[in-house]
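Request: Not sure, any thoughts?
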Amino acid sequence: MFVGRTAELALLGAELRAADGGSARRAVVEGPEGIGKTALIHRLVASGGARVLAASGEESERKLHLGVVRQLLDEAAYLGAPAAAGPDPCAAGQALCEAIDALQAQGPLVVLVDDAQWADGPSLRALSSTVR
């Protein structure tokens, strides 16, 4: 039992089921450092049967151009999706969309960006473009 987070798991689980039904969804999990946000997400995806495309921001890498998006594209390539992007955030966002489309064709997919507050600006622009 995942104590104290049943309501949050239920809400996120509903979003995951909606996405599995073909409706793209997005969710933001916020809260103070150390309260278990990452554990909550990992619990959700472990129980939901979706594959995960994950990246994380890191304060020391904030100036690494497209660092977070490149993590996602590297993992997408490992999973068999086309994943090449140039230095432009819009082009990187488009490449990420194409990789996500290819992976979604194989089944449910969760794109997870942990510690997004530490992501570099170009990655955030590319991710914003991807979400739109």
DSSP finds five helices and two strands in the chain. The first strand starts at residue 51 and ends at 56. The chain has a mean pLDDT of 87. Helices lie at 6-20, 37-48, 67-78, 89-104, 121-131.
